[in-house]
Design goal:
Elements: E1 5-8, E2 11-16, E3 19-25, E4 30-37, E5 59-62, E6 66-71, E7 74-79, E8 85-89, E9 95-98, E10 110-116, E11 119-126, E12 134-139, E13 151-154, E14 161-168, E15 172-176, E16 182-187, E17 190-198, E18 201-207, H1 211-222, E19 235-237, H2 245-258, E20 264-267, H3 288-297, E21 301-305, E22 309-310, H4 317-322, E23 328-329, E24 337-339, E25 349-353, H5 359-372, E26 380-383, E27 398-400, E28 403-404, H6 405-408, H7 412-426, E29 434-436, E30 448-451, H8 459-473, E31 480-481, H9 495-508, E32 514-516, E33 525-526, E34 529-530, H10 542-573, E35 578-579, H11 581-584, E36 598-600, E37 604-606, E38 616-621, E39 626-628, E40 634-636, E41 639-644, E42 652-655, H12 662-665
Parallel strand pairs: 19-20, 19-32, 20-21, 21-26, 26-29, 29-30, 30-31
Antiparallel strand pairs: 1-2, 2-3, 3-4, 4-18, 5-6, 6-7, 7-8, 8-9, 10-11, 11-17, 12-14, 13-16, 14-15, 15-18, 16-17, 22-25, 23-27, 24-25, 27-28, 33-34, 35-36, 36-37, 37-42, 38-41, 39-40, 39-42
Helix pairs in contact: 5-7, 9-10
Length: about 675
């Protein structure tokens, strides 16, 4: 009987009937696993960089009953009889992950169900392990840090960001290397990954001695973030929405008059005549070049909102339609959602979306951005609604240049950021950052700074945001932020809301981006359009809140050299700026349980206040270090302490080996 295995140079192939499985080394301690019906194809959309050089210690051995691929810490065994795969550590022999069929009569752990046109509904099943913790998977609003026990849709939505990369407490990282719409289930009786329609199964597996090592391998495989721009680490001022050139300049001038450092001011949506013009409406913005020049003289960058939506009334619609650069349906229609296009059409008009998966469409978009923004001196773009936000949100009938909506829809936000990054760098820009509302695996390589989306203005949403940000950090996206104060609502004259603003600002002061944004009361609408909303500047919340936020802004300003130092180090080791305690202290079991604290870089422990009325909070100081508070008292690690938290302060602790630490010492 012929062998089920074919051994190729640094590649293991198993076949039974039409089912083909291929396993190959893919970076240090890592392997790529692909399976298909009849064949395994190259060149399909995914997150992995081009095939890396094969590690010198990688090897394949074929035996009668099984075959083994080893690569550093990772050993993968495939059974000849049924193709079931298991992964173990080479140093300890411990099992990391094991495929598991759901039933003895089921054909295997990998399932392909024809969906026509060469597509399949694909399932991949693995065994479940008692006590396993799962982190990463992007950004979700369920308020959990440990994803074990959850069911997550693999589909992009406002505030729900699908990045199919997980870090397990068992010592492995797993990337579902498919942008197909689907879901993942981390159940007590098994794990199941599902692609509703895709051409083949594709995942990447890595082993690491620590979670930090796993993130480093992932960054090697999917791309590292570029240098974090110097201009981006200060305060970003935004609201929904500044409606005119005069209003923007008045706000920037007031920051300067008050001596408050401002780095970026943002012009939100409807500064255009029509969606898809990607230009200023000169009725409200008569001289944008002069505006940019005055802002830059004040030390302020201007960021503008860029939506992927294209109205039939816009200047660019007909050309993009005729060039095939709009997302279509299989019936040929290119209009997918009713959106408020202008204040003159407040009830909405059917709009299309440019096809970010098409390089020609990305170039056409850049031509407009270059002519109408970049030539004016604008180099910062806010890629809002880039899921893209279609209504209804059913991608299965969509036709993209990269494939059907079912198999590639989740790729859209990454390719959108890619186009901006590639064209800006082609212009010679060396500091590129785009603020994005959605992302996919590999977005980090294109300067994507993810934010939390349109979330409520509540303490519960603040606490959920901390956990969401920590999971983003474990998803390989090192740049993340949140709308300070939440997006939906919040009365600047309400004392209770003022407290929330202060606590949210104190949390954001340690995130890569510090950004005031939201739709404050009174929220006045013209149809579904938010006309502007209430004020949202630091001085809008009363003297006490202003003083507390100013103190946090002052600390942020002094921390900026440290933040850039840590962000630069993260480029080489793959680590984010805000880090769950388990990243720095994986040997401390208690550190894995803490989901409302983090370290900012390596040395600074931050315990944000997440409850209304709280003036103290419990803080866990991880074992493996000593910790010094702002009064200079040294505490041993591995214990809980109760820290004072007056309204104008957030509990901070410094790893004691980091002395001197000038930015904190100056606050004593």
């Amino acid at each position: 009987m012929p062998s089920a295995f074919t051994q190729l140079p640094n590649l293991l192939r198993w076949r039974r009937g039409h089912h083909v499985l291929e396993v190959q080394p893919w970076g240090p301690d890592s392997a790529r696993v692909r399976a298909g019906v009849h064949r395994v194809a190259d060149g399909l959309p995914g997150a992995l960089d081009p095939e890396p050089a094969t590690p010198a210690d990688a090897a394949v051995e074929v035996h009668d009953t099984h075959a083994v691929l080893t690569n550093g810490l990772l050993r993968i065994t495939v059974r000849a009889a049924d193709g079931l795969l298991s992964a173990t550590r080479t140093d300890t022999g411990e099992e990391l992950l094991r495929e598991q069929a759901p039933h003895f009569w089921w054909p295997g752990a990998r399932h392909f169900e024809s969906a026509g046109g060469g597509l399949h509904r694909i399932e991949q099943r693995f065994a479940a392990y008692e006590g396993e913790r799962i982190h990463g998977l992007g950004q979700h609003g369920h308020g959990r840090f440990d994803q074990k026990g959850t069911v997550l849709e693999l589909q992009q939505r406002n505030g729900e960001v699908s990045i199919p990369f997980a870090v397990s407490s068992r010592g492995y990282g797993f990337l579902w290397n498919s942008p197909a719409v689907g879901r993942v289930e981390f159940a007590a009786n098994g794990t199941r990954w599902v692609a509703d329609r895709a051409r083949q199964l594709d995942y990447w597996l890595t082993a690491g001695r620590t979670p930090a090592g796993i993130l480093g391998n992932y960054a090697d495989a999917t791309g590292r973030a570029p240098a974090f721009p110097q201009w981006a680490s200060g305060l970003w001022q935004s609201k929904l929405r500044y409606r005119s050139q005069d209003e923007v300049l008045d706000v920037a001038r007031e920051y300067a008059r008050r001596g408050l450092p401002l780095s970026v001011i943002v012009i939100d949506y409807l500064h255009w005549r029509n969606l898809g013009d990607w230009d200023f409406d000169r009725r409200d913005w008569p001289d944008p070049r002069a505006m940019v020049e005055e802002l830059r003289a004040l030390g302020v960058e201007l960021a503008v909102s860029v939506w992927p939506s294209v109205s039939p009334l816009s200047e660019g619609y007909a050309g993009m339609r005729d060039a095939g650069q709009l997302v279509a349906t299989y019936s040929g229609a290119t209009v997918h959602a009713d959106w408020p296009d202008t204040e003159e059409a407040p009830e909405g008009i059917g709009v299309a979306f440019y096809d970010a998966t098409d390089p020609a469409a990305r170039a056409a978009l850049w031509d407009r951005l270059q002519e109408n923004y970049y030539k004016l001196g604008i180099r910062a773009f806010w890629l809002d609604a880039c899921e893209p936000e279609m209504r209804p949100g059913h991608p299965h009938n969509l036709d993209y240049a990269a494939g059907s909506g079912s198999e590639v829809a989740n790729l859209y936000p990454r390719e959108h950021a890619r186009g901006i990054h590639e064209h800006l760098t082609a212009q010679g820009e060396t500091e590129v950052l785009s603020l994005v509302r959605s992302a996919w695996a590999g977005s980090q390589r294109y300067g994507a700074a993810l934010w939390s989306g349109d979330i409520p203005a509540t303490f519960a949403a603040l606490a959920d945001s901390v956990r969401a940000g920590l999971n983003v950090a474990m998803s390989g996206i090192p740049w993340w932020t949140t709308d300070i104060g939440g997006f939906h609502g919040g009365d600047p004259d309400d004392e209770a809301y003022r407290e929330l603003m202060v606590r949210w600002f104190q949390f954001a002061a340690f995130c890569p981006l510090l950004r005031l944004h939201g739709h404050r009361e009174p929220r006045v609408f013209h149809g579904p359009i938010g006309v502007g909303g209430g004020p949202n500047e630091i001085w809008s919340y009363g003297e006490q809140a202003q003083a507390a936020m100013t103190a946090a802004l002052d600390l942020r300003s002094r921390l900026r050299p440290y933040l850039h130092e840590q962000l630069a180090a993260g480029r080489s080791d793959g680590l984010p700026l805000i880090r769950p305690l388990l990243l720095e202290f994986p040997a401390d079991p208690a550190a894995w349980d803490v989901d409302d604290q983090f370290t900012c870089g390596r040395d600074l422990l931050v315990a944000p206040v997440l409850q209304a009325g709280a003036r103290q909070r419990r803080v866990y100081l991880p074992a493996g270090a000593q910790w010094r508070d702002l009064a200079g008292t040294v505490h041993r690690g591995g214990q809980w302490v109760t820290a004072a938290a007056p309204l104008d302060a957030v509990p901070l602790y410094l790893r004691d080996t980091a002395d001197p630490f000038t930015p904190l010492r100056e606050t004593r």
